[in-house]
Amino acid sequence: MDTASSSTADPTPTREAPKPSADPSTSATSDDTDEAGEEDEGRAGSAATGTASAMLDELTVKGRAPKTGYDGDLFKWRADTDHNGCDTRNDVLRRDLTTITLKAGTHGCIVLAGTLDDPYAGETYDFDRSANAVDIDHVVARSNAWQTGAFKFDDETLKEFGNDPLNLLAVSSSLNRQKGDGDAATWLPPNKSYRCEYVARQIAVKHKYELWVVPAEKSAMERVLAKCDDQPAFAEDVDWPGPGDGDNVTTKEETRPAGQKSSSSGSSSSGTSSGTSGRSSSGSSGGSSNSSTFFENCTAAREAGAAPVRQGDPGYGSHLDRDSDGIACE
């Protein structure tokens, strides 16, 4: 689970999302958690090469490790790991949305609007960044990864995992929060026709990073895949679209986000909030961005979809750049 944008409710679906090409009759049913049986046992170790089941058989099975030392920030979610100049959240949106509108002046990065075919819900939504009703889900949750081997990762591998396109999907915020950090034994997408692909993707992530599965998790995956024995293993090499790329892309200007403050207001000697007056002695923080505005804090920058903010970009201020490396709100 990861909340890239937040809202109190999802938008009303505009239409039912297109179904995956797989035959729905092979997808998991709502009785998945009750259907372990002889068929599953007979499949063990005999799955066809190149299938998700065969990849699952290659994973180690053992108990969950303690959560000691876990911190989601260790995974550096939203870092620009592919160095394309765009934060990971907007990379996901440009990949997963259709009929995309990009914000002018952001080097083809920031998505203002589009259409989401939510694979978890099986419904289609109109996405508007101001509504913030779309989250970015880590298909294998970071805390689940931590307890199945990621606690041993070095810093670079943690960051790679946290921003890997294989492990990230744009979905409705309510389902992302419903899932939490659950594995396949505790949560499956309500869209039954997507469950086989969902589990195959989880298996691919765990295989790529040499994570293990716990016994209940593997059993749940086997029950899902028993409905689709020929489900192919999910490709582990997935790339982000380049800046400006996406489906049916247009570009337009956007009015200043509500979280942005005018630099002139920061220099006012009266009528300012305590947060603004606390920066008034360093008013050049707004000016250093070559912009007349700056974000009040990193929360405002993230809510606006602008993080990380680079020196010279609209909204940048030195008060946001704690390590003074020219990149704020990393």
UniProtKB/TrEMBL annotation:
Biased composition (Acidic residues): 31-41
SMART domains reported for this sequence: Excalibur (SM00894)
Feature: compositional bias, Basic and acidic residues: 319-330
Pfam annotation, one family: GmrSD_C
Record-linked InterPro entries: Excalibur_Ca-bd_domain, GmrSD_C
Location of region: Disordered: 1-52, 234-330
Biased composition (Low complexity): 1-30, 262-293
Excalibur calcium-binding domain segment(s): 294-330
PANTHER family assigned to the protein according to its UniProt record, in alphabetical order: AMP-DEPENDENT SYNTHETASE_LIGASE DOMAIN-CONTAINING PROTEIN-RELATED, SECRETED PROTEIN
Name this protein carries in UniProt: DUF1524 domain-containing protein
Species of the source: Brevibacterium permense
